[in-house]
Amino acid sequence: MANGIIISAQRNIDQAGDISASLNILEQAREAGLKQASLSIDPLSTDWNSPLEEGHFRSGCGPIEALAVANRMISQSEADVVAIRGRDYLKSEYSREERHQLMTIYEDDISIPEAYTQLTRHFCRLQGLSEQEFINLRDQIFQNLSRTAEQQGISLPDQRWFTPLTDLFRGVDCANPGIDFDGILIVAHPDIVNSLETSMPPVKVCGTGIGIADQDGPHYTQTLAEYHALEKALHYASIQSGIDLCQSIRSPEVLLDAYTCYPVVPLALLIISGAATTPEAISEFLATRPLTQTGGMNLARAPWNNPALNGLIAMCEALQQAPGQTGIVHGNGGLGYKQGLAVLSSNV
């Protein structure tokens, strides 16, 4: 069974960037008579609770799920080329009021920051973290993201974003959706890669892992805080890729793009994977390793269901500068009921 090869990864953010080379590859594939498939990441305008259409994906784990499906289709010869695309112009096509209304996805009008505060309290209790220890780690996560953001030329937020929104989170700790995003990833069968004029060195999909909990929402935060879905995703990604995810996440030689909608999510990735399990080990990790390739979902913005697609594209860009290296991209859906990991490599 052949693993898929990513042959194009492009994005347009706030009208900066170009995806035309990817569209040209799809036209080449059509003219060559190759079997094509298209997978779509739903925009914010799609009702969160509506049935999923075939070939559509929703939640912050959606792009990793789409990559898993694309890799399966390639490996089973159902398609020669699969395009994964997500477009959501959150800044220019929605008013602030519309965004707020559409992002109120849980019953009783509980906001996502409030729901994540509940989840975090349960997680800290399970992990034996005091509130002050969590706050210390929260601040270190922001510092970690800030270093990457500055390297990417992203301006840091002004002082008003440091105002508390909940007992545990400030504005700088929460995903900021104010972005126009259009991204595309093209996955191909290795046998046809050389027959297409591609715009980037190929990146191999070594494996993916998806874990799904039975329920999502504020009423289930106590169970979700156990992160069993993440355990499953780590297990399946390790089996598919043939690498130890704990050792890989811990290794300074492996690139990482953790999901950073709220600080508890990357903390869970480090702890549940076993890469760093004590406050001291987590602090050392955060001081020496970038959590993301982008600067995170506040500083680099969060295009609703597309942050992991943005992360996959950013990882492909990073791997082009790092021959023979491995990258791990994390996706988190809802309050953590869906978890996904993709293992990529520039060693094709």
UniProtKB/TrEMBL annotation:
Gene Ontology molecular function: acyltransferase activity
Q: Which Gene3D superfamilies match?
A: 3.40.47.10
Q: Which InterPro entries match?
A: Thiolase-like (IPR016039)
The protein depicted here goes by the name Acetyl-CoA acetyltransferase
